[in-house]
Amino acid sequence: MKHTLRASLLLLACAWPVCSQAADKPNVIIVITDDQGYGDLGFTGNPAVKTPHIDQLRSEGTLLNDFHVDPTCAPTRSALMTGRYSARVGVWHTVQGRNMLRRREVTMADIFADNGYATGLFGKWHLGDVYPYRPEDRGFQQAVYHQAGGVGQAPDYWGNDYFDDTYIVNGKPQRFEGFCTDVWFGEGMKFIQANKDKPFFAYISTNAPHKPLYAPLEYSEPYEGDPRVPHPELYGMITNIDDNVAKLMQMLEDEGLAENTILVFMTDNGTAAGLDGGRGYDGGMRGEKNSEYDGGHRVPFILRWPAGGIEAGKSVERLTAHFDILPTFIDLIGLDAPAIDFDGTSLRELLYGDDSDWPERALVVESQRVVDPIKWRKSAVMTDEWRLVNGTELYQIEADPKQQNDVSADYPEVFKRMRAEYDHFWDDVSREHDLTSYMVIGADEAPIVTLSSHDWLLDQLPPWNQTHIIRGDVAVESFWAIEVEQTGEYEISLRRWPVEADKGINDGSYGKAYNYQKARLRIGDIDVTKDIPAGAKEVSFKVHLEQGVTKLAPVFIGPDMSATPYYAYVTHQPKPGWQTPAGMGIPVYDPSYGRVPPQNLIRDIQP
Fold it and tell me: Where does the signal sequence lie (predicted)?
């Protein structure tokens, strides 16, 4: 199942001349959108959405037309970044501490950076918000991003709403003007222009069209009243992405970069909002985001590289997946890389030749979304011809793309073989399912660490979104999994609201008010309780911690209940006032700053 690929040896076998010319290394741009399904594009057959520039890109590049990712976003991104199964690298959920890419993993950005590339991320990361999991810890030299899995989720800057928000720039908050997608592309294009004289890797990762469905009116209004449209805001977000792709492609032309730039467009899972009330287009498949059926994980993947001889308009119909992309880049470009046990393999043969000698292989995608993975849970075993779903249903995919006719009884040998493929996968990756990715405190790379309820290790869904914090949802006792990097003196500040909200623990200005009276700190063998002074915005504790892994399990205590604070801040370099917004260098949230979404709605949100 795994393929050991030593990139330095591949240089000897490089079939395309550009690979051997270091000065001509191609640039690489990946544009990946969030919760946009295969059917949410014009070129895949959607009759209503307008995506003329992505459609043009498809005509200029090669389409991987049986390309699969995981059914949700963080797992997909972990496999894309590493070339390895998401379950192998510790990312099988989007929250609950299971979205952090294990510290040991080598990322795509690491490899590009080690090969002399400028590396930049713009938009969504979703593989960890604290050291050592942040994008700036994982090979990205320039990183402009929102935190967590979406703008407005619990770790993100308080009050972010897609318009004129505060994002993180290389670890520090900075205010921006503009709609979020415009910001990500704008910052990405600035990075490209600043690094055009050397090879660059730009990862432009939009949070759109993830819910909530907010879009500039000039994009949503043209879709109003169209009975084919599930949500005007959704298609407006997609057309805005398309316009930004046009700006990117034009900039590459103007800068003379288009020929020798590998430009990729892809999405991270099936649609989340593209099918509603009989409206929308399903791409001819069953399932949506989080589904084990093809509609949950088959997505478009376009690759354009004129100087590399990538054929315009070609369609590759063999089974491919997210974890194939990193080994493919290493092979095509001739990148030096450490020996990595990839689960994916280079697609060079499919891109440059036909598929006559391409071997059949079995791949697995799954949607666990639990703290501890469960065998067969929401799983699909795939070959070119077959799909085994949840270990119980078998579909012959070409004859039955909607996966409506279970033929497991008709093909018992195939059914048995596909189950054996899953058993092999499970026996392999599950050996380390018990490993936890610990958030590190006490590292000099991160003097102050921010923890939020998004990453509670809780058997139920934690309060991962700011709307949950506002409502006071999931007010229960929980904990964070912590690694103390160095023995020493620490200070820990507990808050009901994030520091930038700058509100009292029992203040109800932004949502539900509590009547907490005491704060109790529990970490390791330390158990200390303090009174909460009237009007206090936080309660701080000074403690001595020993190096090692532990649980941070504080609680606020009231007359009728106790619950873990939604936010905690930890430093091993305390200074007077460090626990204030000014002490952390974070601007206080100003509700009057900037524009707000023109739509007076918040659609159902998903992690």
Answer: 1-22
